[in-house]
Amino acid sequence: MTFPNDKNQLANFNHRRGLLTSSGLAVGAFALPATWNGPSAARGDQAGASGSAPAKRAIVILLQGGCSHHDTWDLKPDAPAEIRGEFKPIATSVPGYQCSEHLPLLAQRVHNFNVLRSVYHATPSHEAAIHWVLTGYNYPGANTSTRNRNDKPSMGSIVARVRGSGTPGLPGYVCVPDKGQLGDRVRYASAHFLGMAYDPFESGMPPSDAKSPFQMPPNLSLSKAVDLTRFDHRLQLLGELDLFSKTLDSSSIMNGLNQSNRRAFEMVSNDATRNAFDLSQEPATLRERYGNTRVGQEAILARRLAESGVPFTLVNFSINQDWDTHNNNFKTLKETRLPNLDRAVSTLLDDLQERGMLDSTLVAVITEFGRTPKINQTAGRDHWSDVFSIIMAGGGLKSGQIIGTSNSRGEVPHDRPVHYNDVLATMYRQLGVPTDRVHYHDGRPVPVLYSGQPIQELI
């Protein structure tokens, strides 16, 4: 193949390339972000992952906006009224430990997971805190306009890079419903300098009830005008044309596009991919068990993806700061947030256990920070990162442990402080990803985590 060497030839070249990508013959496929390794990357990166990692896959649920620890996992019934709030504690399946009365199903299952009540990090800003919990790195000055994309790769992208998919046609990393936060004003779940090949695949919005069908991701279908053989031939031609662009491009963008195109074809042509996202294959009774809500259907989709072989699924239970309860904290939590969370997560844990998957599936319910100890004048709680709570289950972790306490007003850790990077280090360990592994950005080494140690009580 000869490459164009003057302006007219280059214009014709770009015209031919544009016809390929705009003709509708590869609708959805060329736009697919691929999140699994190319052949050379797989040989280099998967060798670093432990073949005996306890967790084969992870489901991470983000309660974006900041979930109140005082009203869920760390109640303070003996504190003054402006601290303790309206909710009462109830007994759980772990003797001596109590949680919120509005989490009755999870209360019966605490012996099957762990509660971390002394987690902290250094920023009460939504943008910087979300970046921190998804990447392990602070991002000073993060905002929704000029710093609204990753400064470091997300955990899901790193897992996709190191672990790959392991199942032909499936992505290594999926975001349900998408990779945006704060109403899609920031996107901190992406691959950044690891390249487009490790960006998450987006599932699209699941239905808001248990009976409606799920519209399959549009990227999983071809135009009716082309069959797979014809599409494959055009994909090969596009790869040849891109050789010219790669000679002009010193970054990894073209390589990422080339991998994405090839893996996109694998996804479109593989029944396993479409089956993984097909909620219609689930019994109606099971979908109803998860809840007649969007978050319930997100949870069952996450289980389905994990069962199919997707190594990392990030589930956003918020559309736009749903847990940011500056106003009417108690009414909002009592009427919608906590009942929906309680049913969806308790059923997810039961379902994984019934399928023999919980021991090999790491489940974490995280949030970017907690809420203020003192209730404000609008019956809400504000941002608080000095201490907050998360839960972790499965993936080879011990269970039924309550790690750490906060002080009597829920302001700071009282004993066993757990920096959030320790949480990430624990998850990486269980997934077989060394946290001292270094990736390079503009020639500079960037470790998976700059700090953090696995939580010994859990492993």
What does this structure look like?
The longest helix is centred in the C-terminal third of the chain and has 26 residues, at 329-354. The protein has 459 residues and is of the alpha/beta class. The strands form 5 sheets. Strands 1, 4, 5, 6, 7, 8, 11, 12 and 15 form a 9-stranded mixed β-sheet that branches. It has one domain: Alkaline Phosphatase, subunit A (3-Layer(aba) Sandwich), CATH 3.40.720.10. Helices cover 33% and strands 14% of the residues. It has helices at residues 7-22, 39-45, 81-84, 104-107, 126-135, 155-163, 228-248, 253-268, 271-277, 284-290, 294-308, 329-354, 420-430, and strands at residues 57-62, 89-91, 98-100, 114-120, 173-176, 201-202, 312-316, 361-366, 370-371, 383-384, 388-394, 402-403, 405-406, 413-415, 418-419, 438-441, 444-447. The relative contact order is 0.21.
